[in-house]
Write a structure and sequence with these properties.
With about 325 residues, this protein is an alpha+beta fold. Helices cover about 35% and strands about 20% of the residues. It has helices at about 60-75, 90-100, 130-145, 150-165, 170-180, 215-225, 230-245, 250-265, 270-280; strands at about 1-10, 25-40, 45-50, 55, 115-120, 180-185, 190, 200-205, 285-290, 300-305, 320, 330. The protein starts with a strand and ends with a strand.
């Protein structure tokens, strides 16, 4: 049994979406993959070869593990625990997702399963790696155990797990990774939209951020939770959406540059990334982070670029790929 789920790029609205502003996001042609094998025995095996991580446990351990995760998340919400300590181990996100999906009275059906998760999505790059991995896992396990899992339930389970990872999940990563295509997302409302993104759109990887998404979200909350800047973010998202729909390159560049400056203002774009984007702007293009960015260090994860004529010199700084959309979302392949 195999399942996949796509990565995502935020066209506009990262951070602002947490404060009720709209965001535009698109699923991209990078994927998390889950393979299930029935090997028998009285234990559940979890394999993450990309991280050189393997864990074997009994399915009967999952409810207590999930309860511990929920308790620590409540402590985070109360302000007594940093978000980085909600998950005791990296793989606990996935084990929590399993416990959240599979009823306790049928959880033993997980014993004898070997679960292998792999991905070509850069980890920590703001491309929805964790949401895609959880969504692929849930799709595969639900199919293997013949559990009902419609799109609404998949989204709810994926968002529940994401909250442990990021502290306060807006829900946009689960929404786009589960659904695919392109969406306008605001306060939990998902509106599928048609975004014609031509070959002037690129994604670049500036390197794994030093600060996690949860840490970035919390720092921005402390400094800007009550700021009027979020209405400015909302305006630029709507302006950019309109510019893309009418295929207006000059207006797209102007809106993306404005968006980038707002992100710099809230402190999530490290100076080396700002310098690289300045080079893009001098050559006629625009760029911005696509995700949480970083509040420390020199890298910010994924970058969204729009450039009608990308100079060869810009391609030598960071790994760059054309933005290709995935219209299908999380799905079982066989």
């Amino acid at each position: 049994m195999d399942a996949v789920a796509p990565a995502k790029a935020i066209i506009s609205g990262e951070h602002a979406v947490v404060y009720g502003a709209p965001a535009l996001a698109v699923a991209i042609n990078r994927h998390a993959r889950c393979r299930l094998d029935r090997i028998g025995g009285a234990s559940l095996s979890l394999h993450l070869p990309d991280l050189n991580l393997h864990r074997t446990l009994s399915a009967t351990e999952l409810p207590a593990l999930a309860a511990g995760c929920r308790e620590r998340h409540r402590a985070f919400e109360a302000g007594t625990l940093p978000v980085s300590r909600v998950l005791a181990r990296e793989e606990d996100l996935l084990l929590y997702a399993l416990a959240d999906l599979v009823p306790a009275d049928t959880g033993t059906h997980l014993d004898g399963l070997s679960i292998t998760l792999s991905s070509d999505i850069p980890v920590g790059a703001g491309m929805g790696s964790s949401a895609a991995t959880v969504a692929a896992l849930l799709r595969a396990v639900a199919a293997a155990l013949e559990l009902p899992l419609d799109e609404r339930a998949l989204l709810a389970h994926t968002r529940s797990a994401e909250s442990l990872q990021h502290g306060r999940s807006s829900g946009i990563d689960p929404a786009i990774c589960c659904r695919g295509g392109a969406i306008r997302y605001q306060q939990g409302r998902i509106e599928p939209v048609a975004l014609e993104l031509d070959q002037s759109w690129y994604l670049a990887d500036s390197g794994r951020p030093q600060a996690s998404t949860g840490v970035c979200v919390e720092q921005v909350r402390r400094n800007f939770a009550n700021s009027a800047i979020w209405s400015e973010f909302a305006d630029v998202t709507e302006t950019l959406y309109a510019a893309i729909r009418r295929a207006d390159p000059a207006a797209i560049v102007t809106a993306l540059r404005h968006n980038h400056r707002l992100l710099c203002e809230i402190g999530v774009v490290p100076e080396p990334v700002q310098a690289w984007i300045a080079g893009l702007e001098r050559s006629g293009g625009a760029g911005k982070i696509s995700g949480a960015g970083s509040v420390t260090g020199s890298s910010a994860g994924g970058l969204l670029i729009y450039h009608p004529a990308m100079p060869e010199t810009q391609l030598n700084n960071h790994p760059v790929m054309l933005l290709e959309t995935d219209c299908h979302g999380a799905r079982v392949r066989n």
